[in-house]
UniProtKB/TrEMBL annotation:
Its main location: nucleus. Transmembrane segments: none annotated. The lineage of its organism: Eukaryota, Viridiplantae, Streptophyta, Embryophyta, Tracheophyta. Gene3D superfamilies: 1.20.5.170. It is found in: Nucleus. This is BZIP domain-containing protein.
Amino acid sequence: MEEELLLDLRKRKRMLSNRESARRSRMRKQQHSENLVSQAAQLREANRRISAQVKMIAERCGRVEAENRVIRTEAMELAERLGSVSSLLRLMGAVEISDPILNPWQLPFPAPPITASADVFQ
C-alpha cells in the first residue's frame, strides 16, 4: 500500500512537471510567434521605404537621361552649324575656326611665348 502511494505521488509529480514544462513550451512558442509577426511588420515597412527610394531614384535617373539626350542633340546640332560656318568661311577665304568642343587643347589663336628673366627667382 505504501508503495502504491509512493508510486502515485511520483506519478502526480511527474504529471505536474510535464504540465509545467508544456506550459513553458507553449509560452516560448507564443513569444517566438509574436517576435516573428513583429519582425515581419518591420521588414514590410523597410521594404516599403526602400521601394519608395528606388522609385524616386529611377524617376530622377529618367529625367537625367532625358536631359542628357537633349544636351547631346543640341551639341550635335551646334557641331553641324559650326562645320557649316567653317565651310563657308573656308570658301570665302577666311581663317578657319577651330572647334574647342571637339579639340579642347587646341587654342584658336597661337599662344605667345613665355619669357622669364634670371632675377625672377631672387
